[in-house]
Design goal:
The complex is a heterodimer. Chain A is an all-beta fold. Helix content of chain A is about 0%, strand content about 55%. In chain A, strands 2, 4, 5, 6, 9, 10 and 11 form a seven-stranded mixed β-sheet that branches. A four-stranded antiparallel β-sheet of chain A has the order 1-3-8-7, with no helix packed on it. In chain B, the strands form two sheets. In chain B, strands 2, 4, 5, 9, 10 and 11 form a six-stranded mixed β-sheet that branches. In chain B, strands 1-3-8-7-6 form a five-stranded antiparallel β-sheet, with no helix packed on it. Classes of the chains: A mainly beta, B mainly beta. The interface between A and B is medium-sized, with 19 and 22 residues.
Amino acid sequence: DADVTQTPRNRITKTGKRIMLECSQTKGHDRMYWYRQDPGLGLRLIYYSFDVKDINKGEISDGYSVSRQAQAKFSLSLESAIPNQTALYFCATSDLAGDTDTQYFGPGTRLTVL
Amino acid sequence: GQNIDQPTEMTATEGAIVQINCTYQTSGFNGLFWYQQHAGEAPTFLSYNVLDGLEEKGRFSSFLSRSKGYSYLLLKELQMKDSASYLCAVRDSNYQLIWGAGTKLIIKP
């Protein structure tokens, strides 16, 4: 079984709809991240959480919100989706105790906003 | 501002060697990562450098010069499955990863 899972894998929605992307991990890591990836651009950080009670904005948090329901679960919400939020979204986890704090990624969610 | 530069695309021949360069300008430095990403898939970790020098891992090696703000990923004995994008990322003084746009590597038979 995959260590980091994301649901759904693909989603098509309409402008103005609220949607939620979910991420679960079995790696036992404290740190979790949400990124988006657009063609020709590097991964951009939306939100990150270093533990259940810690939530931090990333580079591009406007239009997004997150919830850390448990150590293993971190969900991303788009309150009112707009077409320029069409992108590939990745969840990642890391563990500072692992020395390098390397991030490990889920398989991604391809989101299309019409 | 913070910036990571990598070539957009490179082409190499199966069995050959290729070097993918990465230059960076960031607010602080706390390590540099290389990831491999096949089209439509998740990035997967390849290597980590925090001190100057070469780190070797099988067919892949990564080099870092902090004074020059420069790294490269060296791939030897190229195989068709190495066709992918290679992402360079630097951890800055705020402990955030700054990502390059990636280098698409095309392997020809």
